[in-house]
Amino acid sequence: MLKKKPTMVAPNDAGKLNGRDRTTLVLMAAVPMLIVGGLIWIPALITVALSFTSWDGIGGVADAEFIGLQNYVDAMTIYPAFWPAIWHNVVWLLGLFLVFTPFGMFLAVLLDKELRGTKFYQTAYYLPVVLSAALIGFIWQLMYSRDQGFINAVLGTTIDWYGDPSINLYAAIVANGWRHTGYIMLLYLAGLKGIDAELREAAALDGATETQTFFQIIFPAMRTTNVLLLVITFIEGLRAFDIVWIINRGRNGLELISTLVTQNVAGEASRIGFGSALATIMLLMSSIFILVQVRLQVKGDE
């Protein structure tokens, strides 16, 4: 019997896509772009455009009066809550950066040693991350309650943690840091698991201690993860909102840029143009750290 020759595919036809494949690729690219554009970029551009107007939400956007940079000038000169809010965001950022981010990294290093009960501790530390920030605010309201709170019961005091404007910012930072610590721990633990075990073994053979191994070998090898955690911490410090809004709507010592935006856009004042200017300032501040992350990521890939 004669054997049937196998069908040969022409080299020029091997890499060609048919119409169905092209449609699939176009949809895979277009759908995410439309979603991101519709939910993020278009509203962001509209916000920036409205920041140059005095629109108060009454009537159509076409009726808004163009006033240039006046909203930005007013925010920095005659709006009394602006600079305190900037300072509160800086304090919030420093609290996360100097306390809770290093603490989350420290927990990740400990859990990476596979100690007894590691899985339990991972779950316990990560549990606050899966909770919404609003729910965490309610939980810590119970902890901070002046008359029936757990902290005052332990300390034997009657401190109004959320009501005293001299300490409520720090109390809110601790509540937010409880959640932030677990998030940092999870990300850093994932990075530690990706480190080649031979690096540790070589350092041990050279007589390096665990501390020396971490700071001289492991920490530099996790440069990408370290930059990611740094950017996440800065963005978290700038976009803090939920917990503060639950506490007292961002008043009485808890003013933040995000709460000022909400008060002006969705509050009784309804100064959408002015609130959009505050939101644009917040967007610019966040974009700095996002661009730094993207540049370092691209540089690392190269």
Relevant terms:
302 residues; mainly alpha; MetI-like fold; 14 helices; 71% helix
What does this 3D model show about the protein?
The chain has 302 residues and is mainly alpha-helical. The protein has a single domain, classed as MetI-like (MetI-like fold, Orthogonal Bundle), CATH 1.10.3720. Helix content is 71%, strand content 0%. It is built from 14 helices and no strands. Helix 2 crosses helix 14 and helix 13 (257-265) packs across helix 14 (272-301).
CATH superfamily: MetI-like
Label the structural class: mainly alpha
Give the biggest sheet.
none
Write the H/E string, N to C: HHHHHHHHHHHHHH
Could you tell me the mean pLDDT? 84
Topology, number of strands:
0
CATH class: Mainly Alpha
Which overall shape is indicated by the principal axes computed on the Cα atoms? Answer: globular
Blueprint of the fold:
Layout (H helix, E strand, L loop, with lengths): L10 H4 L4 H32 L19 H8 L4 H30 L6 H13 L2 H12 L5 H6 L12 H26 L3 H9 L4 H12 L1 H17 L2 H7 L8 H9 L6 H30 L1
Helix pairs in contact: 2-14, 4-8, 4-11, 5-8, 6-8, 6-12, 8-11, 9-10, 11-14, 13-14
Short description:
The protein has 302 residues and is mainly alpha-helical.
